[in-house]
């Protein structure tokens, strides 16, 4: 039985030399990971969208949710603030996509407590053209036509027996 104890001790020394044991003396750093939007989504302007995340550690300081536009060379420039002073423990927020030019964007969540900002994978924002429900005629013509129609109805009403 002594040989089993010696073999275990030798195996432990060998594995500790190759793979040092992990020490958990330092607490895990605060981190935030964006869960939604997932990469490749297509958003339309003036549309309500849900942004969600998960956190590790204890984040107490409010976060800002930003939208950044891709420049094409791998750089991102700030485009809009989607939400500010959001409680990170809420694990999400609902935002309205602002009217922006079409193109690639990403969501960035910032907080002074975070060691680094959290970013979503790239998504696409489309500008949707609104269809007009009004007729193509000028407003002045429509008003004149409406007045003429009202006058005719009044004359017919007065002329009835």
Task: Describe the model.
The chain is α+β, with helices and mostly antiparallel strands and 161 residues long. It has a domain at 31-106. It contains two helices and nine strands, in the order H-E-E-E-E-E-E-E-E-E-H. It has helices at 2-18, 139-159; strands at 31-36, 42-44, 48-56, 63-70, 76-86, 92-96, 103-110, 118-119, 123-126. The strands form two sheets. Strands 2, 4, 5, 7, 8 and 9 form a six-stranded mixed β-sheet that branches. A three-stranded antiparallel β-sheet has the order 1-3-6, with no helix packed on it. The longest helix is centred in the last third of the chain and has 21 residues, at 139-159. The model has no long low-confidence stretch (mean pLDDT 79).
Question: What is the topology?
Answer:
Blueprint: H1 2-18, E1 31-36, E2 42-44, E3 48-56, E4 63-70, E5 76-86, E6 92-96, E7 103-110, E8 118-119, E9 123-126, H2 139-159
């Amino acid at each position: 039985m002594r040989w089993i104890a010696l073999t275990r001790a030798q195996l432990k020394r060998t594995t500790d030399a190759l793979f040092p044991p992990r020490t958990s003396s330092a607490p895990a750093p605060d981190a935030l990971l964006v869960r939604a939007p997932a990469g490749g989504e297509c958003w339309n302007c003036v549309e309500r969208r849900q942004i969600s995340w998960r956190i590790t550690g204890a984040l107490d300081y409010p976060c800002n949710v930003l939208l950044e536009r891709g420049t094409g060379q791998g750089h991102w420039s700030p485009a809009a603030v989607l939400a500010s002073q959001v409680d990170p423990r809420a694990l999400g927020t609902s935002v309205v996509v602002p009217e922006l030019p079409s193109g690639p964007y990403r969501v960035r969540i910032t907080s002074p407590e975070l060691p680094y900002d959290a970013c979503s994978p790239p998504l696409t924002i489309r500008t949707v053209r609104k269809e007009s429900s009004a007729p193509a005629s000028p407003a002045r013509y429509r008003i004149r036509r409406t007045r003429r129609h009202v006058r005719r109805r009044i004359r017919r009403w007065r002329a009835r027996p």
